[in-house]
Amino acid sequence: MIVVSGPSSQLLSWKVGKEGGFEVVDMEYSRFPDGESYLRICEDVDGEDVAIIQSTRFDQDFIPLLQLIDACEKAHRIVVIMPYMGYARQDKQFKPGEPISSRAVARSIEADEVVLINVHSELVMNYFMCDVTNLDASKLLGEYFAKMNLSDPLFVAPDEGAISLAEEAAKIVNAEYSYFKKKRITPENVITSGEMNAMGRDVVLIDDIISTGGTMVEAISRLKEVGARNVYVSCVHPVFVKNAMLRLYRAGAEEIVFTDTIESFQSKVSVAPIIARHLKSLS
Ligand code: R5P
User: Ligand 1 center to residue 89 CA distance, Å?
Assistant: First the structure.
């Protein structure tokens, strides 16, 4: 397997190569004067099994992914890894005339296999025209917290969609888990309900995505109200729009922990081990 790194996932691609013992090919990325993307795979991948790794956090990340797939046309097998898949939250049609945007994206990907990580909606997996694997990074987050000396830890999902993440991470620490019920009021604000036995305890909030931070801000406040000792905030995909990180710290987050599905030098947990393990299982 040869790793072909897209421009948005360079560090992660390198780590996957190191972890799995795969060659990571040299790349060239630039833009034409009119802003169009140019890229080149600097080594021959014809006849090889290739793993293209490119997160699609921004619209401008999609074109390089399509270019990479095209450049690997003569590869023996193409595995496309989208550690973060943008548009996955647009998984259904809510009003007539709307596209199913995640389906539009999925249909444009021509590969032998697609690998996603904690994709927001499993519906999205049905939209691809090839095999899809959805890897789970919750255990990696659990392992991070297992190394800390948390006091009577409680893992909490800020909404029902994140219950399995809280459950899986809690198992690693041998801790309890619980969840809030969430109602979204505006794109940036939510209200939650649900009893929480958090008095004097260290609580780890865990979600798939932090976007505006509204969900976590509400959950942090609720946990502080019921006497939580420290509230740690964690997620797989650090989308962090506008002042999300500041909102979280201002709300009382002790620490914010997230993976490198979206590249950031502040990621404390890498998803490279689960990607590398999956790629090894293919060879
Ligand atoms: C939604 O169901 C997701 O799991 C996240 O809870 C949501 O995307 C977080 O968004 P925000 O940070 O804007 O509240």
Answer: 9
Question: Is 95 an active-site residue?
Answer: no
Ligand 1 center–CA 120 separation, angstroms: 9
Whether the Cβ atoms of residue 169 and residue 137 lie closer than 8 Å to each other: no
Residue 77, classified by CB atoms within 10 Å of its CB into exposed (0-12), middle (13-18) or buried (19+), is: middle
Which residues form the pocket of ligand 1, taking CB atoms under 6 Å from any ligand atom?
Answer: 159, 161-162, 207-215
Tell me the per-residue pLDDT of 25-34, one tens digit each, with 9 for 90 and over: 999 999 999 9
Mutate to test the pocket of ligand 1, among 209, 216, 243 (most ligand atoms within 8 A of CB): 209
Which pTM was predicted? 0.96
1-32 burial string, b = 16+ CB within 10 Å, else e?
bbbbbbbbbbebbebbbebbebebbebeeeee
- Tens of pLDDT, residue by residue over 43-81, are 999 999 999 999 999 999 999 999 999 999 999 999 999
Question: Which of the following is catalytic: 139, 147, 182, 268?
Answer: 182
